[in-house]
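Quick one:
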Amino acid sequence: MTIKTHIPSKSIAMLLCCLLMFPAQAAERQQPKLGYTLTAISKPVPAPDFTLEDMDAKKFSLKDYRGKVVLLNFWATWCPPCRREMPSMARLYEKFKGRNFVVLALNQMEDVDQVFTYTAELQVTPTFPILFDKDSNVSRAYSVLGLPTTYLIDKKGNIRFRAIGGREFDHPEVEKQILQLMQE
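Output:
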């Protein structure tokens, strides 16, 4: 004997959607918190200069930011900690916007469409320059071994702090280090 039941297709679709979302939400909750410490460079070294283009093919050079503190972040859209830290960089940049501070996010080996799609998904769209290090020459000049890697460069163009791995950049401890560099 076979019992036939009719389940509306909308109910099946909703059930499938919920089942598919559950693992993603559980994975998000299981991720460790982002760090907030930046490691001081014992002997500051000059930051290698570079010129890269943004999504609109506008050129940006590091030397143009002398006199400002620069948070230089190496990242990619496929990198989970990079994706997690991007919103905190956007909040930090907005907080210090108009002061002697800038964020430069150097995307590694991805194309404009990939980055554009990713940034459109964010709740807060980054307003700082996102530059393309297509062949990773700048990454090699900075000895980047993994993503994300971030450097904090002082107003004279020297690397003063480094962070390897994801960070919560709008954490009060990070803001304190940036403010100290801005006051030098």
